[in-house]
Structures are given as structure tokens and as C-alpha cells.
Amino acid sequence: MLYLKTLIIVVQLLSALGVIGLVLLQHGKGADMGTAFGSGASGSLFGATGSANFLSRATAVLAAAFFISTLALTYLGSYKPQASAGVLGNAPVSASAPAAAASAASAPVASSAPGADVPK
């Protein structure tokens, strides 16, 4: 279980850093004005609008990975295994039951015969 948490934390960290990097690489909405007049990214690797589409899709994929890893870490962090009912299906003995049995054993034993509590 520890390896799974470590793996999810690594995925979350890498996706967070990737989202930060991709957001910083993207152009703002005002940057499209320059491409309308012939300057800018028309000769780039992805074309005039290809880089925006690629970067926005990659950002969306990494954001989804970050979101899923966050939900998985939340689930694993709040997971508490249920107490077993035992082989015979009886209720499990709690930790306070042996202490109560020990204190009852040290107390004086009262007679359980009928009428034992009636004064004579």
C-alpha cells in the first residue's frame, strides 16, 4: 500500500509541474492579435493554431491526471479497514473487554444464589 501511495504522489507531483509549465508556455488571448497581421507563430512547428491546440489539450490531460491522483490520495488517506468478525462470525473483542474482565476478576465475588442480597 505504501508503494501505491508513493506512485500516486509522484504522478501528482509530475502532473502539477507539467500543468505549471504548460500554462506558462501558452499565449494569452491578446497574443492572437499579432498572428492576424502576419507575424508570430505561422511558421512554427505546430502551425499557426496547432501549438495552441496541442498545449491546451496537453494541459487538459495533465490537469485530469492531477485531479484523479488527488482523489485517489484522498481515498487512500481516509481508508480504514473494517474490523474482522472472526472465523465464526462473532463480534470482535474490543481492547477494553480484557481490562473489564481483569477488573471484575479482582473484585470480590458476590453470591448469585436467589435471596443472597436480602438482609438476614
Automatic annotation (TrEMBL):
User: Does this entry carry the keyword Repressor?
Assistant: no
Membrane disposition: Multi-pass membrane protein
* Gene Ontology, cellular component aspect: plasma membrane
Q: Where are the transmembrane segments?
A: 54-76
Question: InterPro entries per the record?
Answer: SecG
Question: Its Gene Ontology biological processes?
Answer: intracellular protein transmembrane transport; protein secretion; protein transport by the Sec complex
GO molecular function term, any single one: protein-transporting ATPase activity
Domain of life where this protein originates: Bacteria
Stored Pfam families:
SecG
Could you tell me the keywords of this UniProt record? Cell membrane, Membrane, Protein transport, Translocation, Transmembrane, Transmembrane helix, Transport
User: Where is the protein found, in the record's own terms?
Assistant: Cell membrane
Primary location group: membrane
What is its biological role? Involved in protein export. Participates in an early event of protein translocation.
- Family to which the UniProt record says this protein belongs: Belongs to the SecG family.
Q: Give the protein name, as stated in the record.
A: Protein-export membrane protein SecG
Question: What taxonomic classification does the UniProt entry list for its organism?
Answer: Bacteria, Pseudomonadati, Pseudomonadota, Betaproteobacteria, Burkholderiales
